[in-house]
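Researcher: Next entry in the queue.
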Amino acid sequence: MDDSQTTRLELLEARVRQLEHERELRELLARYSFTADLGRTREYADLYTEDGAIDLRGQNMPRFEGRESIYADFINGPKASSRAGKAFHHAAPTVFFIDGDEAEAEGYSLMWVLEDDGSVEVRNANYSHWRFRRVDGRWYIVERVVRLLGAADAEKMFTRTLQQRPD
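Model: Structure for this entry, 167 residues:
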């Protein structure tokens, strides 16, 4: 194989790796939604790194820092038990920026909730900025920053997506 073929093969392998990482990150976001919606609180918290955080200050909630705080104070909080099996989280469209074992993502998030009368209501519509880390071959959430639609600082959620891309 000559040098140009080797270079093309290396470029192709790098692109495939990036696509595999993106697929794994999309699966992580799906697990994030499923575990939250079905009340699988330990599994939900375990999607975060030990020092992971979820920042909900834009929703009149605090920033939860550390996997155990996310588990005990957030996902097992007072509203959690009433929503188990009645909520539907959806995170899309999401744009990923992957750099080795670190990644970021920016996108929207919606949560619908089945009400006691059988109606389904949109409970949250958000902008989200995510940070991820790959540890021992597995992706984890490092941080999720959430701001409600219409928030004054919403544009900050899309710092990378809105950058001018070279043609």
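Model: The radius of gyration is 18 Å.
Researcher: Noted, moving on.
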